[in-house]
Amino acid sequence: MGYGFNVDQPGIFGPGGVTSSNALFEFDSYADWKFYKNFTLSLVGAFADPHKAVQEAYNRASACKCGMVYIAYSF
Question: N- to C-terminal Cα distance for the chain?
């Protein structure tokens, strides 16, 4: 899934105000694999790329990447 985040009122976003409304692009991916009878393995990956509004407000230009792996048991 992909998301594009925009700031509704850039002038009041963050300390010092912001001129751009383009905040962030995020992409998430999910995968579930059912193994055995009652177990499911889930993999989640996420990538977020800050755009001009986040750079202006928080001085952050580097991308964020994260992932999770978990196992669920159902009975």
Answer: 30
